[in-house]
Amino acid sequence: MRIALIGRGRVATHLLKALLQAGHEVVSVNSRTLEELPPVADVYILSVKDSALQEVIAKVANSHHPTPNTQHPIFVHTAGSMPMDLFKGCCTHYGVLYPMQTFSKEREVDFRQIPLFIEASDAESLQQIRVLADSISQHVYELSTADRRYLHLAAVFACNFANHCYTLAADVLAQKGLPFDVMLPLVDETARKVHELHPVEAQTGPAVRGDQNVLAAQSALLDGRLRTIYNIMSDSIQDKKQHDQLRLTEDTSHRV
Q1: Which of 244, 242, 218, 240 is nearest to 231 (CA)?
Q2: Which of 207, 166, 162 is nearest to 184 (CA)?
Q3: What count of other Cβ atoms lies within 10 Å of the Cβ of residue 97?
């Protein structure tokens, strides 16, 4: 396909590599200037920060003037939490191509293993977006805007919040002159376990054991917001365990 990729951030950088490896003809466009925007493309992919998306959509739509001899192109964005209907009124055929992964320019990723979630304004556009998605990933799913909001929310918990916990752990270690490297075997095993176990089954630690002495002693080592985070997380783990145990008891009683 002939593709115009608007944006040069982290997602766009990795997406560009994947598209080129799949054999597509791609023009990478700076979202601030749009100077390199090709007049004719099959797909225009907008991969910019959420706060700039609406403005860039308007600019791209105003800059694109298809001729009677060219098919109407498809416009898609790559944002997990933004609705598809941002294109409504600006474009005829549009949709979403959301790669659910954390991206850093310094790290290579295997795009074929990244889940892609797609949505489109019409059946024909959905078919074309799926063809494009299938060319760069082995894991493609259709998902509505409403459901994608919850998917992105779950990703924030699983990735962004988890990484922030690593940052807090690094701060605690640094107070005693310890490097974060000592955590890596634990971090790696925690991640490996959830490939085989449900996260509830993989949960360990003083909170899930109900070890109140340890919880109180560790909380006392902390101050301010960090103590609040520790207490909230510990309470959440315990509440989750109690809820699951109650549900299991109710299910058993109903079967009896």
Answers
A1: 218
A2: 166
A3: 26
